[in-house]
Amino acid sequence: MLKILLLAAAFALGAPLPGAAADLAPLVVGSVRDQQGAAVDGALIRAFDAQGSPVGSGRSDRAGTFAVPLSGQASRVDVSCRHCRLVSVSAQGDEPLAVIVERFTALESDVPEARDLSALPYQRIGDDLGLMPFVIPSADGDEVSELGLNHGQGLVLDDGAPAYDLSTGKSGLADFPGRYVRQISVIDPSHAFEYGSYAGGGTFALDQLDPQESFVSGDAGQAPSFAVEPSLGVLFPAVGVSNDGTLQRRADFDVDEPFAGGVLRTGLTEADEFDQPGEYGTRAFDLARIDYATASRRYRTFVDLDASGSQVTQGAAAPTDYRASYLYGAFRLEHPGPVSWTAGATLSSQSGLWTQSGSYPFAVSGNVTSQTAFVEAQSDGSVGGFFAGLGLARERDAQTTDAGAPFAGDQSALLPSLQGHLSLGGPFSLRAGVSTSLNVPTLLYSYADVPPQGSLVIERGKLQEAGLDYDAGGRLRVETVAFREDLRNIDDQRLVGIGASIVWQVAPDLSLRAWSLRDSPLGFENNEAPIVSPTLSRAVLWATYESPSGIRFDAIAHRDVNSQQVTELDGDALLPIWPRVSLDLGTFRRSDGRRYSVGLRFR
């Protein structure tokens, strides 16, 4: 009994118990953030004693935190990560370390971020997207695609909802005024099978909601714009208007709040566009959406329900009216792990009406129902990785036109995709893949070339691509690509091309991004001799200086061979004049002349 009492007293006084270690292994703990405040995952933590000898090492976790066991007393800690500068901090004392690293963001992502979008001189989001490697915008900025695929048209997701016009196939880029978009995500064409149709040119997800901060922007000059996007807790109203020759207006109201262990987002959108005297007179667009996402340790689930409608009216001598509606529902289940897998399904219903009065009246109407189920798996490691997916799409189409008899069709299609990359040792890696996609014809095509009665013609696409990349995790990244796309069943076409991209962080405040893509389209009509189309190419050189004080300059040179083969020079300057307030000066050239603007940004 006496021995037990003595042991209890020793424990209470903090003395080591017999047989126990006299001291626990020392630790150095802390967190790693970049200059934007984001957690740095996988940063290498190395501890050294006063003589410079290593005494421990480890890595930060997804939250940016670390706890490194030490074999001796640490005096200094070095923190390094991919695409960032080495940071050394003193490790004296027992306080947790807060390490801020300067990450070379130009090397981390090719997608323009919110701070880029507020500085760049462009009003149309298509021009901003055209700065990304191998992304080709149309001359008017209303269409965009990766590598020029799928007739130069990619799928646009408007706040997560597919924006597609069954009447004409027009994308949803026209529904975003200048300075309105705050977040961009790009989904590779190899994932086209997830949507069943229209994503063969890549998928571009655009969103004005930024839960991290409010944003106010105003521009005066030849390209005026105004956008107000406050963040009010769980409420996110937004309104914007711009006019670079085309008047664009939009209003959104979103609620983003916790619900049943996940996050529920509901929102409404109303937008319109007025073009004078352009391609069409007015365009009106409405959207309602409900999105729910939840995550556990083993699974992540996503549910989306969207309904949208659009109407375009043009012409005075021969008034033309295009109407389209879109209902969309999607479910997605993800399981992360060394080999992660995903399963999901989408269901959509579209309808459209195209009428013209006047001397040559006509009318076309139709509806399309799409059902898609898909599975995919992927894995990444130090020596390589893979992505494999398979979609099963069923398309049902019924259309009526005064140019011929009504027709209806029902077709199913398997859409496989396989991608892989392999490390060649050191900074070099090789990647290759093949993927498929499909498109249901628009009413515009149906009127021009009506298929036989009782049939449904679906355009099938096959993409083969390969690339050799260089990335040592430092200040330089190089990417090359070679590809071939074959489109069949409507107007058979082949597109082959090569491209190269380089990103160089010349200095901590100066980045240089350059890329070039050369496409060679080839058409086939009625199995006759090939028809060589004009070369479709683009080259971009984008230099950015951005100091810690907030001063920023962008200089952009771009050349589009498919238009006038003229190199254009655009630029901007962002100058802080008050805490969180900056003055912006910009200039860019459109087909009808050069535009200048001066404005204020508040973040």
How would you sum up this structure, described in words?
- The chain is mainly beta and 603 residues long.
- It has two domains: 25-103, Immunoglobulin-like (Sandwich); 106-602, Maltoporin, Chain A (Beta Barrel), CATH 2.40.170.
- It contains six helices and 36 strands.
- The strands form five sheets. It has a 22-stranded antiparallel beta barrel. Strands 3-2-5-6 form a four-stranded antiparallel β-sheet, with no helix packed on it.
- Strand 24 (384-401) and strand 25 (407-423) form a beta hairpin.
- The longest helix is centred in the N-terminal third of the chain and has 11 residues, at 2-12.
- The protein starts with a helix and ends with a strand.
Topology:
Elements: H1 2-12, E1 27-34, E2 44-48, E3 54-59, E4 65-69, E5 76-80, E6 87-90, E7 97-101, H2 105-108, H3 114-119, H4 125-129, E8 135-137, E9 144-146, H5 149-152, E10 155-158, E11 161-163, E12 183-187, E13 203-207, E14 215-221, E15 225-229, E16 235-243, E17 246-259, E18 262-275, E19 282-295, E20 300-314, E21 320-335, E22 340-356, E23 362-380, E24 384-401, E25 407-423, E26 428-439, H6 443-448, E27 459-471, E28 476-488, E29 493-507, E30 510-524, E31 530-532, E32 536-546, E33 552-560, E34 567-578, E35 581-590, E36 593-602
Q: How much helix, percentage-wise, in residues? A: under 10%
Q: Over the alpha carbons, how many angstroms does the gyration radius reach?
A: 28 Å
Please name the CATH topology of the largest domain: Maltoporin, Chain A
CATH superfamily of the largest domain: TonB-dependent receptor, beta-barrel domain
Which outline best applies? globular
Give the low-confidence spans. Answer: 1-22
* Largest sheet properties: 22 strands, antiparallel, barrel
Number of strands: 36
Mean pLDDT: 85
CATH structural class of the largest domain: Mainly Beta
